Amino acid sequence: MSTDDERTTDASTTNSTATDSTTDASTADSTTDASTTNSTTDVPTADSGTPDGRPDLGGDPVLRTEGLTRRFGELVAVDDVDLAVDRGEFRSVIGPNGAGKTTLFNLISGALSPSEGRVVLDGEDVTALSPHERVRRGIGRSFQITNVFGGLSVEENVRIAARSTVETDLSAWERYLRSTDAFDEVNERAAATLERVGLADRAEERAGALSYGDRRRLELGLVLATDPQVVLLDEPTAGMSREVTQSTIDLIDEVLADRTLLLIEHDIDLVMRVSDRITVLDRGSELVTGTPDAVAADPEVRKAYLGGVADE
Ligand SMILES: Nc1ncnc2c1ncn2[C@@H]1O[C@H](COP(=O)(O)OP(=O)(O)OP(=O)(O)O)[C@@H](O)[C@H]1O
């Protein structure tokens, strides 16, 4: 158990521009034509769902990892991990310190390249794509320290995030032809996002002047504005009190109810409450994946990680 493990933020979680010195994935954006642009302008809601708004899990993996492996010298930080995360699923990844959780996220987001294996989003192999390209394909990531620009308005912040996926590496001429469309798309998506995170009436306010709670809303809005299919949440509640932790998770569940979520979280009680399924990593390997009840009852997990908690 490591609920008391409030790590200092490591390089991989400081911002989305890959400051991690170990980052070796290609940072060059590959040229993308208009056809690969995500044309969704609004923030869709779930088609079907459980009473809490989450879609039923139908064995329809939106994100898969296949034999994903990352070595650092002799150390195998992530060892042959096969994940299949269903569309709409709330999946948590837990494991002792050093189990490979953050490395796994870095491999999925593209901040790190794998030594072996593949990352597949919606049937497309994205392993060779840069982090930015993966965001455009629909892999969003929220960070403990985010890129909110305090001096800009709430709306400007959201527009910047929306624009990062709407605008593509088009030639100047193509950009000119598409500029009105792209402008409309950014506007529509920003408006829908502000509505969804409950900040529509604060759109003009300076982001730096927001209350703590509204800032968390804006941070989620920045992720949502990229219209992600899958959102990687790396310890979104680190350092928070129990109360704030619960309200943050409630907010995530509300705002991102129709997205596929992958969460790293040290608060096991919380993970047990919110997850559809939990993957337990141990020394880089997937120990087990299952429902909270199945994981809590798994003897291997109890031995390796949960200790007495499962007996409570
Ligand atoms: N850039 C790196 N260079 C060398 N070793 C690394 C690097 N990044 C991670 N590691 C090692 O890989 C292993 C997995 O680390 P990782 O941070 O992924 O674990 P974690 O499960 O996220 O741990 P924690 O719960 O403490 O955050 C650890 O032994 C760590 O020391």
Short recap of the structure:
With about 300 residues, the chain is of the alpha/beta class. The chain folds into 2 domains: about 40-55 and about 60-140 and about 230-310, P-loop containing nucleotide triphosphate hydrolases (Rossmann fold, 3-Layer(aba) Sandwich), CATH 3.40.50.300; about 145-225, no CATH class. The chain has helices spanning about 100-110, 130-135, 155-165, 170-195, 210-225, 240-255, 270-275, 290-295, 300-305, and strands at about 60-70, 75-85, 90-95, 115-120, 125, 140, 230-235, 260-265, 275-280, 285-290.
Question: How would you describe this protein?
Answer:
The protein has 2 domains: 41-53 and 60-138 and 228-312, P-loop containing nucleotide triphosphate hydrolases (Rossmann fold, 3-Layer(aba) Sandwich), CATH 3.40.50; 146-227, no CATH class. It is built from 9 helices and 10 strands. The strands form 2 sheets. The protein has a 6-stranded mixed sheet with strand order 6-7-8-3-9-10, with helices on both faces. It has a 4-stranded antiparallel sheet with strand order 2-1-4-5, with helices on one face. By secondary structure, the protein is an alpha/beta fold. Helix 3 (154-166) packs across helix 4, helix 3 (154-166) packs parallel to helix 5 and helix 5 (212-224) packs parallel to helix 6 (242-255). 33% of the residues lie in helices and 20% in strands. Bound molecules: adenosine-5'-triphosphate. Residues 7, 22, 72, 75, 77, 95, 97-103 line the site of adenosine-5'-triphosphate.
Topology (SSEs and partners):
Blueprint: E1 61-72, E2 75-86, E3 90-94, H1 101-109, E4 116-121, E5 124-125, H2 131-137, E6 139-142, H3 154-166, H4 172-196, H5 212-224, E7 230-234, H6 242-255, E8 260-264, H7 268-274, E9 277-282, E10 285-290, H8 292-297, H9 299-306
Parallel strand pairs: 3-8, 3-9, 6-7, 7-8
Antiparallel strand pairs: 1-2, 1-4, 4-5, 9-10
This protein binds adenosine-5'-triphosphate (ATP).
Adenosine-5'-triphosphate binds next to strand 2 and helix 1.
Protein name: Probable branched-chain amino acid transport ATP-binding protein LivG
Biased composition (Low complexity): 10-42
Family: Belongs to the ABC transporter superfamily.
